[in-house]
Design a protein that fits this description.
The chain has 229 residues and is α/β, with parallel strands linked by helices. It has a single domain, classed as Class I glutamine amidotransferase (GATase) domain (Rossmann fold), CATH 3.40.50.880. The protein has seven helices and eleven strands. The strands form two sheets. A nine-stranded mixed sheet has the order 2-1-3-4-11-10-9-6-7, sandwiched between helices. A two-stranded antiparallel ribbon has the order 5-8. α2 packs across α4. It is globular and about 40 Å long. The protein starts with a strand and ends in a 6-residue tail after the last helix.
């Protein structure tokens, strides 16, 4: 499997996050190849990978708020990278999209179709990291055995653009007066299986017992090594 962990460092320590994910999946018996750039991840998918895990933040940075970062970090995936990633999942490869993966590749609409949702600039939002209550709302191998509610310190993404193909598995609120926002979901893209886990801001979130269980079971499901179809 390939773990893509990288991107603009102003709000996330992707190196630490990538190591935490790799350690979790290695304990589950997976061989893990960590890379820090989408083009490199795309090139590795042809080497027999059964899954791609994306915990990264690469996008065009068009908003004025990112002026100081744009020259070094703005990114639009070239055709070869788009084709490799889309073809991998469509052809039966597994994808686990973690946290900021939802915001990646904002000028590539198919990425949102693959993940099952996408960030809407000027509409979607999240508050700072805080303790939130997540609720399991669906039945699926990904959330099997996870408590009906669990506490986690993380950011809750809200008002994202969902695709109709997804099955929402867990929700949380950005604030007490917010509606329930989908934070974990699963669906299929072509012959591939996809799980999005909106948590995973940092290693502490990944180590949260409920979230680590979700991530482990997500990888098992997308690679077909777990139970269920």
């Amino acid at each position: 499997m390939v773990v893509l962990a990288g991107g603009v460092p102003h709000a996330h320590d992707f190196a630490s996050t990538g190591r935490a994910l790799a350690e979790l999946f290695h304990r589950d018996g997976h061989r893990v190849d960590i890379v820090d750039h989408p083009d490199l991840a795309a090139s590795r998918l042809a080497d027999g990978a059964d899954a791609l895990v994306v915990a990264a933040l690469f996008w065009t940075m068009a908003d004025d708020a990112y002026d100081e970062w744009r020259s070094d970090w703005a990114y639009s995936p070239p055709a070869a990278t788009r084709d490799a990633i889309a073809g991998f999942v469509r052809g039966g490869g597994g994808l686990v999209a973690s946290h900021t993966a939802l915001i990646c590749f904002d000028d590539w609409p198919e990425w949102g179709d693959i993940v099952g949702g996408s960030w809407r600039w000027g509409v979607s939002s999240h508050p700072p990291c805080s303790s939130v209550t997540a609720r399991v709302v669906g039945e699926h191998d990904v959330v099997d055995g996870v408590a009906d509610t669990f506490e986690i310190v993380d950011e809750v993404y809200g008002d994202v653009e969902m695709r109709p193909t997804v099955g929402v598995l867990a929700t949380a609120r950005r604030s007490p007066d917010d509606g329930e926002q989908p934070v974990v979901w699963a669906h299929r893209y072509g012959a591939g299986r996809v799980v999005f886990d909106g948590f995973g801001h940092d290693p502490t979130s990944i180590a949260n017992p409920a979230n680590s269980k979700i991530l482990s079971q997500a990888l098992a499901w997308v690679t077909g090594t777990g139970e269920g179809d």
